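Appendix B. One record, verbatim.
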Amino acid sequence: MTIFTESLRNALNASTDDVTRATTLPPELYTSTEAFGFEREAVFMKEWLAVGRAERISEPGDWFTVDLLGEPIIVVRTKSGSISAMSAVCQHRAMQICEGEGNNSTFKCPYHHWIYAEDGRLLGTPAMERTEEFSKADWGLPPLAVEEWLGFIFVNFDVNAEPLAPTLGRYTPYLENYHLADAVCPGTFTLESMPWNWKVMFENFNDGYHANRLHEYVQDFCPSHLSAFPEPWTDDANVVFRTAGYTHLDGGFNATHRVIMDVFPDLTDEERGRSTFALVPPMLCLGTAPDQCFFFLVRPTGPETIDVEIGYIFHPSALEDPLFEAKMALSDAGVQVFVEQDQDATTKVQRGLRSRFAPRGARYSWQEESHVQFNRWLARRYRDAWPGGESGDPRLRVVGE
């Protein structure tokens, strides 16, 4: 029996109303295998997916692989300096041709030694000369669309997808003085098999309501009531964000409540007195503080599990400080307090969503405006691919259209 009923459609409609009237998303959208399978095709296979920082492949031939909902992908810096992305699945017998990262001018499948160029063209096919009606030109690695935005690499399974950057314009001004394309990410780490749905992760990251409640004392310098939601939501936006004001200049998410690293030098006093928290669905969570930016790359592995790759971005001068490693350890120790509290909360939220008593039609606080905007982003994708209906089913609407 399908979950895609009239009742679900009505619940989605209610979740996109004004924040003073909107209701939370139905619990089954966080737990159902059917919902996850639908989202895989309706959302993840059609949207721009953040896969990492461009500096990770700074030299020609540099490459890394990433698994995107069961699809192994190669991301490579070509000889010309551009970035390409393609399937890592050999077009002969479907073996994954590489994993991890490295530097190569070609990719050779270990199974039968088919060789591919950095742009996916098939170059070498041992012992295929007797095969009839076979042309190497027909069997290259399937490409993905690629776009770079402020040093982040995005890929899209739809090679004809519309550009991403114009749809992020409402948030870009808040990042201009960070010069993120020239900033430095010294590395990332990955948390695997986290036990919650990808939407739970997104909601928690951008939830101003819990800021100095769940994080009482450790985040009192950045309280919930100083959350703000710039500009009205527009349906063509692919970013949901809020600002989070501080009680003093140069706040920091650590035991001192103050910055530890070098402050980005071009920030205004206004920017030094706040953070921003942004979602670029369905994979990137991005935040800013005066001395660092931080990002989560959220990769679903099932309806109730995700892997999360986490990284920090600094002004280049921060890494020139002889005490950088010591400062990094101090900064990370503070962040881990937040991480532990958030992990405990999101684990218990996911557990609660499986309960027969999980709330349906619950209401939002004004400090959760970001959730309603995210619901609108998601509901539009649901509407365009609603099972059993025509694309753009008018019965599933974003309230206010």
